[in-house]
Amino acid sequence: MSMPELGISVLMSQFRCNEVIPSKQHFLWLSTVGPMENLKIDRERRTTTDQVFEDLRDDILSLALLPGAKMSEAEVAARFGISRQPVRDAFNRLGHLGLLKIRPQRATVVRGFSIEKIAEARFIRLALELEVMKQACNVWDQKCSDSAMRNLEEQKAAIDAETLDRFHTLDFQFHLLICELGGCHHAIDTIMSCRQKTDRLCVLSFNRDKEVDSVIEEHHQLIAALNERDEAKATDIIRTHLGRLDSVVAEIQSKHAEYFE
Amino acid sequence: MSMPELGISVLMSQFRCNEVIPSKQHFLWLSTVGPMENLKIDRERRTTTDQVFEDLRDDILSLALLPGAKMSEAEVAARFGISRQPVRDAFNRLGHLGLLKIRPQRATVVRGFSIEKIAEARFIRLALELEVMKQACNVWDQKCSDSAMRNLEEQKAAIDAETLDRFHTLDFQFHLLICELGGCHHAIDTIMSCRQKTDRLCVLSFNRDKEVDSVIEEHHQLIAALNERDEAKATDIIRTHLGRLDSVVAEIQSKHAEYFE
DNA sequence: GCTGTTATACTAACATACCAGTTTAACCAA
DNA sequence: TTGGTTAAACTGGTATGTTAGTATAACAGC
């Protein structure tokens, strides 16, 4: 899987207080609503709750708020200069996303990583992407290949320019692009949701830049397999590709055990 | 709005006060918490919000509250004899589950079926169950077979006794059982969530009892395939099996177009 | 110093009041 | 009858007060 966005994320928390907020730019792909959250698009009006929710979510996903951090409705409300009510609503949303641990009459805290949840997200994403490959093999043509290739070239350019966050965005988009090209737009929301759950953790990984070359190579092989419409090969590559997550998880778990629960 | 929020739902509210609650019985399998809702198990205390949420969810999933029915925070609060606050929280949860359509300054309504959402749930469930079959083939043994067979026998008994709801519960458990036996407990929550989204619709189907024999037969074939550890055969059966949903959806869509959005 | 108790300072859940939009229907004019 | 205007009846979002339960620190007894 993917690589990380660290470094940058630490820088962001400083920017957040200014008016220029690069974090929103860099993490635009993270900020995109997930599968259960995209329901709020009905709400054409942007409420105070929405704003608080998004701000806090970005802080948590970027690790500006670390697992275990205490969050008080009153304190956050005061910080935002609003009443407790919208904060309470935002807390509830974050709680349902698994980002906050809310218990009555007890301090609300940022949830740590859960091995269980990570394994679940990995399994679901794997299952989905495997099926996507099958579907894609049925409809893949030169046009699809060109489109994917264009993204891949950008990935290489991003690596050469050492803009790792840009690469991460492109990697994210690459997988979604194949969904789209394969006619599996149904899978997109859920895959995004799965990545949100695991990518927060990758921020802490240090040796991610050592693996990007392999990632690029696998992306290349994937396109080749799709061009040949070789389903077996494509699914094999996906299994290997997503298997990379395991070592990252193991690394973080041993290095930052305090962030797990 | 379209449909009455009265009728059956009013009848049910009478039952709710009694000790025998048939609706809860019939839809017990539906009531089981979904993947995003099971997070609330942290809350060891059962809050008023929880109660309202579960009651309304059951009403919606059992179609006691039909798509399009208007729901007012104030009205529900008065009916439950509580303040608007817990109702509001419950509404928000239901909104995030895609069961309610909440818009500021506008009446909240029960969401109708969405072809998009149904297709999405179908795709995700298919992808997951396919991967489950692969995993299960690797670990399947006589003990697993016996366990699954026991459930299958109960299914047959339920059919003979003409207790269709009992059969439905067992069918639900059958698929989850294979997840568990195959070591894919990670998939359970999401599969349950997917079924919740589609099974509300199946309540309206009239000819499901005509298909149960085929369903039983496929379940039988599935166990046979797993016993032979024949991955290709197992996945083929799953594709056919889940494909049944399509005709049901088509039937309901033509017969109850007013429930779709 | 250590332990059990108690008082105090928290917490989120819940209740109530108000506000700003939306919907609806009554109404008047053409 | 029809089309446009307006006012009243709603809606959910927000603010604030109250309550019950929890954690913590001060403290009394040993």
Please outline the helices and strands:
The structure is a homodimer of 261-residue chains.
Chain A lengths: L7 H8 L6 H5 L1 H4 L16 H14 L8 E2 L1 H8 L3 H13 L3 E2 L6 E3 L4 H25 L2 H19 L3 H18 L3 H18 L9 H16 L3 H25 L6
Antiparallel strand pairs in A: 1-3, 2-3
Chain A binds a DNA duplex (30 and 30 nucleotides) through helix 6.
Features of the shown structure:
homodimer, 261 residues, mainly alpha, Arc Repressor Mutant, subunit A, Four Helix Bundle (Hemerythrin (Met), subunit A), 2 domains, 3-stranded antiparallel beta sheet, 12 helices, DNA-binding
Question: In words, what does this structure look like?
Answer:
The structure is a homodimer of 261-residue chains. Chain A is mainly α and 261 residues long. Chain A folds into 2 domains: 28-61 and 68-110, Orthogonal Bundle (Arc Repressor Mutant, subunit A), CATH 1.10.10.10; 115-259, GntR ligand-binding domain-like (Four Helix Bundle (Hemerythrin (Met), subunit A), Up-down Bundle). Chain A has 12 helices and 3 strands. The first copy, chain A, has helices at 8-15, 22-26, 28-31, 48-61, 73-80, 84-96, 115-139, 142-160, 164-181, 185-202, 212-227, 231-255; strands spanning 70-71, 100-101, 108-110. The first copy, chain A, has a 3-stranded antiparallel beta sheet. In chain A, strand 2 (100-101) and strand 3 form a beta hairpin. In chain A, helix 5 crosses helix 6. The first copy, chain A, is elongated and about 60 Å long. The two termini of chain A are 22 Å apart. The structure holds a DNA duplex (30 and 30 nucleotides).
